[in-house]
TrEMBL record:
GO biological process, one term: formaldehyde catabolic process
Domain Enoyl reductase (ER) per the UniProt entry, residue ranges: 11-360
GO terms, molecular function: S-(hydroxymethyl)glutathione dehydrogenase [NAD(P)+] activity; zinc ion binding
Listed name of the protein: Enoyl reductase (ER) domain-containing protein
Source organism of the structure: marine metagenome
Gene Ontology CC annotations of this record: cytosol
PANTHER family according to UniProt: ALCOHOL DEHYDROGENASE, ALCOHOL DEHYDROGENASE CLASS-3
Cofactor: Zn(2+)
KW Repressor (keyword) present: no
Keyword Magnesium among record annotations: no
Keywords, in A-Z order: Metal-binding, NAD, Oxidoreductase, Zinc
CDD domains in the record: Zn_ADH_class_III (cd08279)
One Pfam entry name: ADH_N
PROSITE patterns: ADH_ZINC (PS00059)
Length: 362
């Protein structure tokens, strides 16, 4: 099968023929239909987060089940599915507490064991590493059954792929991590795919003021179509001061969707007393985020959100329903549809900051 392989860090992806295995007892073989380009992939390509090479990247995807292992009963061939990197074992303390996105055992239990053939390899037998239990920049995926969710076949799979990471991360940060209440005020820093999803989450949750912050005017305009009630262009405005001015002294909830020290600190600074700043973005390894200590006496909170604190087996079908009934807007979030061979150009578009999401159609 064709796959986009990262052979060196930092580096671009190379289109290669990669061999894929047969499903083990609890594994599912999927024909990939769509895969979104996510900033998390770019972070690994640039070396901001380490990962062993060679590896097939990609983790935001949807497809059709081709074959299942002998112990799989949840899905069957021809089912439509969304994949999720929040694969779960189902029996560790975090899973049993309802925090499957923090599963403690997936790194050891949901992978092929020593002595078993690899899921991905080159024709000469060299192992190709699977990325975040998925590797969706490929024509097929071989994954554990706990890394997917079955969805309505009426759901367009290119739209569904976005739910696999960015949409669930943004919505979940609002619904599950921050638990935004109707009438509260919110600010979202960064209006890419995740930020736009957080804005939509705030709208669906019933927030009164939703302030979108970005440095690119076209993204701010898109944010307004997603539900932002106010916009702040941080390229020519003090974002913290502007948000405080719009919200009578600060927001109940701020969401950082950039992954940078300065924006994480701004998210904390724009809070009102008792407010919560939720960092969604992937801040590079080795970066320290600082807060002004005395402000903690105002009971302000700075927290992180891992994939929106999701319970994806229940969350994602609900998000599909939200799209189908018109509450969740995904059509506008797809800036470009590309081929696998155009993947590096897609990441260059991402770095320019002028696209919300590019999606590979297989």
């Amino acid at each position: 099968m064709k796959a986009a392989v990262l052979n060196a860090i930092p580096g671009q992806l190379e289109i290669e023929d990669v061999e894929i295995g047969e499903p083990g007892p609890r594994e599912v073989l999927i024909t990939t239909k769509a895969a979104g380009l996510c900033h998390s992939d770019l972070h690994h390509m640039e070396g901001k987060y380490p990962y062993p090479c060679p590896a097939v990247l990609g983790h935001e995807s949807a497809g059709v089940v081709e074959a299942v292992g002998s112990m799989v009963t949840y899905v069957q061939p021809d089912d439509h599915v969304i994949t999720c990197l929040s694969a779960f074992c189902g029996h560790c303390e975090e899973c049993l507490s309802g925090n499957m996105s923090r599963c403690e055992l997936k790194a050891t239990e949901l992978v092929r064991q020593p002595g078993e053939p690899p899921r991905l390899h080159r024709q000469d037998g060299e192992v190709v590493n699977q990325f975040l239990h998925l590797s969706s920049f490929a024509e097929q995926m071989l994954i554990h059954e706990h890394a997917l969710v079955k969805i309505d076949k009426d759901m367009p799979l290119d739209r569904a792929s976005l739910i696999g990471c960015g949409v669930t991360t943004g919505l979940g940060a609002v619904f599950r991590t921050a638990k935004v209440m109707p009438g509260e005020s919110t600010a979202v820093i960064g209006c890419g795919g995740i930020g736009l999803s957080a804005i939509q989450g705030a709208r669906i949750a019933g927030a009164n003021k939703i302030v979108a912050v970005d440095m690119i005017e076209s993204k701010l305009e898109l944010a307004q179509t997603m539900g932002a009630t106010h916009i702040v262009n941080a390229s020519d405005t003090d974002a913290v001061a502007a948000v405080k001015d719009l919200t009578n002294g600060g927001v109940h909830h701020s969401f950082e969707a950039v992954g940078a020290k300065v924006t994480a600190e701004q998210a904390f600074k724009m809070l009102r007393r008792g407010g919560q700043a939720t960092v969604i973005g992937m801040i590079p390894v080795g970066t320290t985020v600082e807060v002004h200590g005395p402000e903690l006496l105002d009971e302000k909170t700075l927290t992180g959100s891992n994939m929106g604190s999701n319970q994806f087996r229940t969350d994602m079908p609900r998000f599909v329903e939200m799209y189908m009934d018109g509450r969740l807007r995904l059509d506008e979030m797809i800036s470009k549809t590309i081929t696998l061979e155009e993947i590096n150009a897609g990441f260059e578009d991402m770095k320019s900051g002028h696209v919300a999401r590019s999606v590979i159609a297989f």
